[in-house]
Amino acid sequence: MNSLIRRAVDPRGAVVVLLAVILVAIVVLNPSFAEPGQLVRFIQRVAPIAIVAIGQYFVIVSGEFDLSMGALVTAQVVTSGYLIGQDPSKIAAVLTLMLILGVLVGVVNGLATTLLKVPSFIVTLGTMLIIHGAVMWWTGGAATGDPVDSFRQIGRGGIEDVPVLGQLPYGVLVLLVVIVAAIWLSRRPFGRTLVAIGDNAEAAAYAGTNVWRTKTLAFVISSLSATVAGVLLVGYAGVHPSVGQGYEFIAITAVVLGGVVLGGGRGTVFGALTGAFTLESLFTLLNFTAVPSTMRDAIQGVIIIAAVAYSGVVFAKRRSTTSTDDQNPGRAAADDENPTPGPTTTPTPTSARDSSPIHPSGDAVARD
Amino acid sequence: MKRLARLDTTAFVYIALVFVLIVSAILVATTGRSILSPGNIRDILTGMSVLGFVAIGQTLVILGASLDLSVPYVMSLASLIAAETMNGSSAMVLPAVLLTLGIAAAIGMANGLIVTVLGVHGFVATLGVGLILKGYLDTNYQGTAGSVPWSFQLFGATGIGPVPISTIVMLALAVLVAFILARTRFGHHLFAVGGNAEVARLSGVRERLPLIGAHIGSSVCAAIAGLLLASRLGVGSPTVGSQGSYDLLSIAAVVLGGTLLMGGRGSIWGTIGGVAIFAVLDNLMSVMQFNPFFKDVIRGLVIIIAVAVYARRRVVARRIRFAAGPAGPAVAVAAAPTGSDERSPR
Amino acid sequence: MKRSLRTAVGIAGAGALIALAGCTTDPSVEQAPEAGGEESASTEWFNQELYDKQFKEREVTPEGPEDKPYLQMINPEMQDTSEHASEGGKKVCFANASISNPWRQTGWITMNEQLKELKKGGVITEMETRDAQDNDDTQIADIDYFISEGNCDGFIISPNSTAAITPAVERACETGKPVIVFDRGVQTDCAVTFIHPIGGFAWGIDSAQFLIDNLNEGDKVVALRILPGVDVLEQRWAAAEKLFDEAGIEAVDYFTDADPAEIKKIVSDELAKGDVQGVWMDAGDGAVSAIEAFEDAGKDYPVMTGEDELSFLRKWKETEMTAIAPVYSNFQWRTPLLAAEMIFKGEEVPKEWVLPQSPITSEDLDDFLKRNEGMPDGHYAKFGGEDLPGYPQVWQDRVIP
What we know:
- The complex is a heterotrimer.
- Chain A is mainly α.
- Chain A has one domain: ABC transporter involved in vitamin B12 uptake, BtuC (Orthogonal Bundle), CATH 1.10.3470.
- Chain A is built from 17 helices and two strands.
- In chain A, strand 1 and strand 2 form a beta hairpin.
- The longest helix of chain A has 26 residues.
- Chain A starts with a helix and ends with a helix.
- Chain B is built from 15 helices and two strands.
- The longest helix of chain B is centred in the first third of the chain and has 26 residues.
- In chain C, the strands form three sheets. A six-stranded parallel beta sheet of chain C has the order 4-3-5-6-7-14, with helices on both faces. A five-stranded parallel beta sheet of chain C has the order 9-8-10-11-12, with helices on both faces. Chain C has a two-stranded antiparallel sheet with strand order 2-13.
- At the A-B interface, helix 6, helix 12, helix 14 and helix 17 of A face helix 4, helix 5, helix 9, helix 12 and helix 14 of B.
- Strand 1 of chain B pairs antiparallel with strand 1 of chain C.
């Protein structure tokens, strides 16, 4: 019981509570939402954002940012419409091309960040401009229509006649695969190394980690997730130059909402996923209430500040009571999901983050 | 610090600027025009003014290892408050300006407090505050509002020869802020906190105050940019800030100017150089009538390549606060993070 | 730091010296007499006078050649332009707001084809374009640049926003060269001609009236709007909202950024709440995803208003739903250059050149689909460039200069 309360008070637990409250509110306002068929459609709708958030998680936990995601989603959406067109025989080839493009963007982001030592914020800001400008330039403003329906089925259709659910959207299946893969990755040495790098790159380097390769891989995962999200979105919504716009900020917001710390070193895949669901259900809730749509942004703003502030305050309190509690309670919840290696159990000058919330990006080394 | 022993990053920024200028001059000449014609100079300098104001403020925040993503909305709000308060009357100019700056300072204070007291990362805090402001603007304004009297329009439209007054004011602000950074305790402490908050705190610096101050400075600078926009537009506009993506561009300009994104190192003059590089580039691409989509590609490439050029240099060569500072802690801090920086693997 | 301080002081000192040498006020900025006129600070978009004017203009049969809608005029008050007449090739300078959406891209392609055609005539020999990328401040700088450096014989301005660009347009007028404004207006009548389709209220009237005619009192309409604060869009909604109110139609409005994913979510949520009988849009891009939301939810198609964007027209044809496509005449992008040529020749042009703006209805749907066969989905049916030499290849390939 005690641990249950502690979990709810824990920031990562708190976001689950917040999600539950929002979902309950939605159901109260609109009981049909609780029907399995509706719920699964809701998951289908969240899938692209959840996938992007999971991809962003890998980058953020390693202490970096990926601002190019939104532009890449747009680029993939437009590319699929432009190249596949109404010819189903091109699907396989174009899909391969899109994956290659995704990997390429990730590699460029990763190498420019690690080897050229350009801050990832700037690298991905640059690639954001480049990708978006280039794809619009190339396609003449992305005026081509949607790709062939069979390709769009991935994001729009599903397996029909499933008991209870009615239709099981492919998007939900894709999301499940991504979640499983992401959790698997985060528990592999790669995932743990990534957290260690985000926590303290210097220490990780001393421990024999190949920092640049690991981080580059994180960027590749992020770009691939944007690619997958693009494939789902072109099905769900269709081709338009504004599809994907702002996804980088939505993804970062979701990740942060899920308790992943900007600056790296702390957070879980599950957190990112919860954050994405919380954010999207919040938007849904606002659609169900009579809140003017112009106020949505303001509400989103208040919620993310409140959520992050809450986790900051709780962690700060935890730290001050560390000696009386178990060794590292701030990590307790994380350990269930994703055991976090790294030396930061007690505040030391080498990990400024833990002791100083105003300097969350860590010391100079963490961003190297 | 022997002058030429190690070229500092600010010098490097200006070398890059000169390079861009030369390339521009040649390319502009191919269209039969001169980059130095009064109209062209004015175009470049006008392009610098707005982004310059924002970037000066952004520099403060970034030096303190934070970010300010709320600037576009502060700018829009400032233009509206100013235009609505003035409402065409010259007598209201001063009250309107003071009110605008006051409100901006309050927003900056809120940003600063959220970052320091609540411990929210600057990215999230200012993104959130920006969204709140955006919601307010979208809900309360359906379009441009208010009107700016002629006397205030002069701020945006008057020039000394080809040099707009707004650019001169911007440079004067840069001088002021550079002075504050170099000569005041606030400045020293900001560098200290940005360099390493922990060390700063252990050295007796109250880590919150400088960062709150930096956020106030950033919002006030954004508000000045908003005032300039109101002066140029003649009205206040709820979208004028977001139209220019001044949030990301100002951060890019600051980093292009050699300031470390993780804080503690950098200079206002580097930022001004970064802003100038953007302005010259934009001017060139407009004169050459580049496709607007292609312009974005070039901007992105320049940001990455330029920053890569100095980022590869030893971090220690970046402009720190001058070495012989009057305050003990500042010196200690200036030296502290370099130890780890110097051993960067490549 | 010391050194840069010294530099800064130097710059400031130099600046002061120049200031002493002579302070120049931008000659073009003058204290305007400001004859009251329109209240520039209006946040309330509904304007009864303008509404009534546009309401009537919808009914007027336009003057001019029937097969060339881009040369037609509604209630023109012709005026003499002989003061601008002169011999020789002319250069026009075009300050464009942006080409950031498919509607503007289509028009921009058309305009360039029109330019090619006009160059053969020898009157307009060159066009220089600056694109403001949706930024008011950039557009002001663009116009100022043209005034001082462009060597322009005439200006064409597509304002990014109404009030904000007004001072810059006035400056362009003060050069004495002809200024042509099109699409969004400005709050000055100094331009030789202001070219625009009937307007936002007419759009709102056409679309809302169609929904009202096809729905019953108490029915629900979801209004999907792109973004707040743009006058042409706000006027569309202001008129529609008024009509819905009067007719007892329940309308809820959302801002979507024209993002189809957002549109689909909003419509899905509205469908989850209860039945929706009508969908109103202030611009047609993304209309298809709204329709698909009905399909995916297994609901009957709504009565729908979109735009003459082909994706919507094709979906409409395919589903045979009850719909109308209000039009914000894309062919207006041809008119400014043609007007410029007329002005340089000294021919009469109307002070306010109101182009026809008639919705595509189910009767002429097939006709427009046929005329635009092979065009991409983001193309606009009433682009009006069928008689230009590049047709249809240039529009199909989306050749954007």
